[in-house]
UniProtKB/TrEMBL annotation:
Lineage: Bacteria, Bacillati, Actinomycetota, Actinomycetes, Kitasatosporales
Signal sequence range: 1-27
Annotated protein name in UniProt: Secreted protein
UniProtKB keywords: Signal
Organism: Streptomyces pyxinae
InterPro entries: TAT_signal
Amino acid sequence: MRPPLLRPARRSRRAIRRLFLSAGLLATGALPLAGCAGAERSPREAAAAAVLSLCEDLGTLRADTGRLAGLDSRRSGVYDVRDLRQVVADDLEVLRTSARGNDRSGVRAVSEAYDGLHTAVDQLPHDITADRAARRLMPRLEALDRAIAGSQASVRC
């Protein structure tokens, strides 16, 4: 017969399983109760959350616009410019969604500036380098950046 220290600890494994099972049941039972206490947000909290979301989306759009302006001329071409334009377009769509109900967001000016950039990117020749494309697009990128900055200022990000 084995000494007690070398015997498999079946009882302790069962006890540990029960402990984890009990803790899991308690946690799943307590979480819904904790959520019931403050489920309703006040209008002020909802408005603050909406502004915070809008500010985050504006920051993302501004960062991706900066990436478009700073393409590496040795590694990038017109297709990279168009891919980044699509990223900016996706950011703009998210921004439009988060700006619903906020009249002072300035999203219309950002959309108009993006439309100018979109048209300018479509007019780029296929064999243009990223450096020349960035130079051609710089006025449009600057206009978009100014529109984003104006929107951030009007929302007070």
